Amino acid sequence: MDERVHAHAETLVDWSARIESGDDVVLRVSEGAHDLAVAVAEQLGERGANLVTVYDSAEVSRAYLTAHDGEFEADPEYERSLYEQADSVLSLGGGRNTTALADVPGERRQAAGKAHEGIREARLATDWVSTVHPTRSLAQQAGMAYEEYRDFVYDAVLRDWESLAEEMGRLKDILDDGEEVRIVGEGTDVTMSIADRIAVNSAASVAYDSHNLPSGEVFTAPADTEGEVTFDVPMTINDRRVRDVHLVFEDGEVVDYDAQQGEDVITELLDTDAGAKRLGELGIGMNRGIDRPTDTILFDEKMGGTVHMALGRAYGANFPEGHEDEQNESAVHADLITDMGEGSRMEVDGEVVQRDGSFRWEEGFGG
Amino acid sequence: MDERVHAHAETLVDWSARIESGDDVVLRVSEGAHDLAVAVAEQLGERGANLVTVYDSAEVSRAYLTAHDGEFEADPEYERSLYEQADSVLSLGGGRNTTALADVPGERRQAAGKAHEGIREARLATDWVSTVHPTRSLAQQAGMAYEEYRDFVYDAVLRDWESLAEEMGRLKDILDDGEEVRIVGEGTDVTMSIADRIAVNSAASVAYDSHNLPSGEVFTAPADTEGEVTFDVPMTINDRRVRDVHLVFEDGEVVDYDAQQGEDVITELLDTDAGAKRLGELGIGMNRGIDRPTDTILFDEKMGGTVHMALGRAYGANFPEGHEDEQNESAVHADLITDMGEGSRMEVDGEVVQRDGSFRWEEGFGG
User: Fold this and answer.
1) CA–CA dist A273, A271 (Å, integer)
2) Which of A73, A85, A86 minimises the CB distance to B50?
3) Number of Cα atoms under 13 Å in the Cβ half of residue A220
4) CB contact (8 A) between residue B78 and residue A85
5) Is A78 within 8 Å of chain B by CB?
6) Which residues form the domain of A308?
7) Which residues form a coiled coil (chains A, B) (predicted)?
8) pLDDT in tens, B15-25
9) A88: buried, middle or exposed (CB in 10 Å: 19+, 13-18, 0-12)?
10) CATH number of the domain that residue B84 is part of
11) Among B53, B75, B80, which would you mutate to test the A interface (most chain A Cβ atoms within 10 Å of its Cβ)?
12) Is the pLDDT reported for residue B367 higher than 80?
């Protein structure tokens, strides 16, 4: 077994999930994640945690959902109690076919999801962590060779998380103390208010209320956005490609937009509801292990030297007591990413925090 | 997918487990049993049962057990409640290596088993059924080619169970009404009392209190065994080969024995405790789909035209109210099998029930 599988498991169990002796752990294993499951089980055994292993197979789900009449029982108690009593739920993604559920009718999947809403909530109330084991299927989705994709995933996962968390802590402090962010780049000059907001240091650990491995971003909830942004990192939204989306904001709302590709997707998004025209998130990618977009939001939005903004729903964690009612509500949360390359800068209250993609505490940062 | 996988799943869900709408089902999937799991999930979806899929991986277990210090928590509640609330537990055997746990110290496995005794009992209190998906690993253990082994398994599993259950019911009635069984063959002439015993019709269905698919045997609990038996079907007991075991009984106990191979294993067995010298079971194999021994007791003891006797512990199901205290107790239950071929016969109270391997209601039965 690739030694990095063991290192991945150790990072997941120690840094991310903080598993201790006696913890009740549910390990959810995708079809292609067997090797990582073995390595994680070893870590759990070593720590004296308890282990229940769930087979999270897309093909089993497809067969079940396709054959079912769609009248799902709400939150079967035997399953709910498993998650309600668990301390941690570790989900190992990595299937054999990312489109394994493609022929299950959407309403069937939605009905199943809705019927299991309580179980999902119970799972999210634990110290849950999701990660992915690099499979050939995911390599294909990322447009990479298998070996290449493994290198890519492990570069992103096997960081010095303690030091990265510290660095991200610096940015969090700047954002927490700041009132206004301005981002300037090619086709971009936008300002937004971040007063009375708490930035989240998403350091891939439940200790930071961060539940994905890899992670590596600091995010907050902006308001009163003014100006224009061009999102030059290509993405897939609602199964369609979008590229070079350009948004113009006035009084916090999108008033004009265009895109090189997928403009209709943006139209649909903005038409969803009132909240979809406002930003719910400003995120700053700080994971230098992620060096290119792979059309997987879990990785792309964490890319070091990028910034993402999400149209729609904001995260509650960004709102301090007394400001909860300022949280942007929407049925959508659509991330769009822009590369902070040569000529770009990010200012907080007029002070330059990042220039040409380098933070002011980094070596490459010029005066 | 081999159409027989679907037929296997249907037999398991319908005939064996009697799954109905709303049943809470735990599906336990071995590493190599994915295809059968998909087919079973389809059947469960069709019936509107609920589904939790557990990954029953020997390699995950090995990693966990090997790394653990051996001080296992007794019956973690989150796992126990899953099984306590389940209606059915369907276990799909079929791994990728039957010796995957070979280097886990025996005491570690025993400690884990002991700590999970309550969970095991909860599982056995459900309508549980165990079956196997034919894998290359199991084919290898059986000494067969993969294709050959698949034919073998499906011949054993895909029976007309309703008609077989009816046929086995005939034998059960004869045994229930009988007082004494006599078995005669080459190197065998033995009599035993079956008075006040209930024969179990093991028809591979929870409706018959029979929990293995395939099954196909009728078994009872004999007493006062007199005479000699030669067990000519080779077997593996405690990881060692035994062949042509010959036992001599007086007053219900083994008083002399020898074997062509593995005599030391028999010595060990008989020395375990007082109950190990007496028979706990007389079973009559009636599954004509199983046409050869494969050194897998689940299949071998069901072979049509064979009889097996177990040294040691008897099953409670054979003892009617008021006779429970006659149940033979022992730490062991070791099955030994003899082929009822040419020249053999089985009598109940002096009447021939089987001759030359054919029952008296079968075509081949000569006067």
Assistant:
1) 6
2) A73
3) 24
4) yes
5) yes
6) 161-359
7) none
8) 999 999 999 99
9) buried
10) 3.40.1830.10
11) B53
12) no
